[in-house]
Amino acid sequence: MTATAPPAGRGTQGAPGDERLLPAVPLRKLLTRPELGSVVGAAAVFVFFAFAADGFLRAASLGTVLYAASTIGIMAVPVALLMIGGEFDLSAGVLVTTSALVSSMFSYQMTANAWVGVAVSLLVTLAVGFFNGFMLTRTRLPSFIITLGTFLMLTGLNLGLTKLISGTVSTKTIADMEGFASARALFASEATIGGATLKVTVLWWLGLVAVATWILLRTRFGNWIFAVGGNAEAARAVGVPVRRTKTLLYMGVAFCAWVSGQHLLFSYDVVQSGEGVGNELIYIIAAVIGGCLITGGYGSAVGAAVGAAIFGMTSKGIVYAEWNPDWFKFFLGAMLLLATLLNAWVRKRAEATS
After folding, report:
1. CB neighbour list of residue 50: distance below 8 Å, 6 or more residues apart
2. Nearest 5 degrees, angle CA 27-CA 83-CA 340?
3. Are 187 and 200 in contact (CB under 8 A)?
4. 193-197: long-range contacts, CB 8 A cutoff, minimum separation 24
5. Which pLDDT value is given to residue 346?
6. What is the distance between the alpha carbons of residues 292 and 287, in angstroms, rounded to a whole number?
7. What pTM did the predictor assign?
8. What is the 3-state secondary structure (H, E, C) of the chain?
9. Region class of 326: left (phi > 0), else alpha (psi between -120 and 50), else beta
10. Which residue stretches of the chain have pLDDT < 50?
11. CA separation for the pair 338, 291 (Å, rounded)
12. What angle do CA 45, 51, 54 make, to 5 degrees?
């Protein structure tokens, strides 16, 4: 005979029972959200610079802040998904530059329509992402080693091939080529709204956040991402395609690197081959500030977007406050540590109430 459980919230003698049996209240649900720490941090940073920097709240200034956040956020979102899946990509920063260089040099050397270079760049960039995923899943080496190797190879190729083809460390102009104007409209256009100049990268950023959030919360692939990040072997045992999931995550990072690279090219017309080095750490920092755990299996795309917003507000807020920019790295490091500590506390709360 099966025993009947006592009513939720009451013990066997009518006394209050385990608090975990109580219905979840909105505040408790909020405390389990991975992006909670980043939202609190973003609000604090916004209020701080609103008082510390006279021009921070101007429409033009906020447009600049949004642009800075979007250029980081476009990459922070796929990097966050990859981290939720338990992996890193140290080649993400230079891959953005590779994407721009391939598009520019192919169009110039082949005297082709600018869109041909854009298409070839997409194929090359996705191939690099596939290479990272393939090497990771076949060799079982840590993603740190795999992508560090890719980072070094791309850094060398970017500089070596650019100097070999162009004779300098930068590409030739393609502004007069057919298709440049329409490609610029897609990747580097802007509009002025209420005194603020909004770049199209903001739309790309918000769109990617929406798609990534839908994938994580509403699709089977999203469940796979959390599963392989939490415990890859257990996920494989229940039928999750671990290799395919991780490879697609790396290709997702590559796709966003392509978007960022085309923005870089069509914004400035020429590309410096040495750009992008070090940006991979900024993407990871934004994801960690946004609630992603280094160990994988936990985080959100929204949190990564908020982490990018914190980066944008900090980098531009220091300028508007007329402080020495040398303090930026200190401020960013402090935010990283504080966010990590808060995220650890949120994680414990989530486990306690699950």
Report:
1. 56, 57
2. 50
3. yes
4. 194/59, 195/58, 195/59, 195/60, 196/59, 196/60, 196/62, 196/63, 196/66, 197/60, 197/63, 197/64, 197/67
5. 66
6. 6
7. 0.88
8. CCCCCCCCCECCCCCECCHHHCCCCHHHHHHCCCCHHHHHHHHHHHHHHHHHCCCCCCHHHHHHHHHHHHHHHHHHHHHHHHHHCCCCCCCHHHHHHHHHHHHHHHHHHCCCCHHHHHHHHHHHHHHHHHHHHHHHHHHCCCHHHHHHHHHHHHHHHHHHHHHHHHCCCECCCCCCCCCHHHHHHHHCCEEEECCEEEEHHHHHHHHHHHHHHHHHHHCHHHHHHHHHHHCHHHHHHCCCCHHHHHHHHHHHHHHHHHHHHHHHHHHHCCCECCCCCCHHHHHHHHHHHCCCCCCCCCCCHHHHHHHHHHHHHHHHHHHHCCCCCCHHHHHHHHHHHHHHHHHHHHHHHHHHHC
9. alpha
10. 1-24
11. 11
12. 115
Token pair, residue 5, equals 């459980």
Cα of first residue to Cα of last residue in the chain, in angstroms, is 29
- Single-letter amino acid, residue 169: V
Angstrom CA distances, 261 to 115, 122, 158, stand at: 14, 10, 13
**Amino acid present at 286:** A
* 61 Cβ contact partners less than 8 Å away, ≥ 6 residues apart: 55, 316, 320
Contact of 54 with 194, CB cutoff 8 Å: no
Contact 85, 248 (CB under 8 A): no
Q: Which residue has the tokens 């992996």?
A: 87
What count of other Cβ atoms lies within 10 Å of the Cβ of residue 346? 21
Q: List the one residue out of 310, 331, 288, 338 whose CA is nearest residue 34.
A: 288
* CB environment 306-345: b (16+ within 10 A), e (fewer): bbbbbbbbbbbbbbbbeeeeeebeebbeebbeebbebbee
Residue the block writes with tokens 């104007």: 181
Find the length of the chain. 354
Contact 48, 320 (CB under 8 A): no
Query: How much is the pLDDT for 20?
Result: 38
pLDDT of residue 35: 76
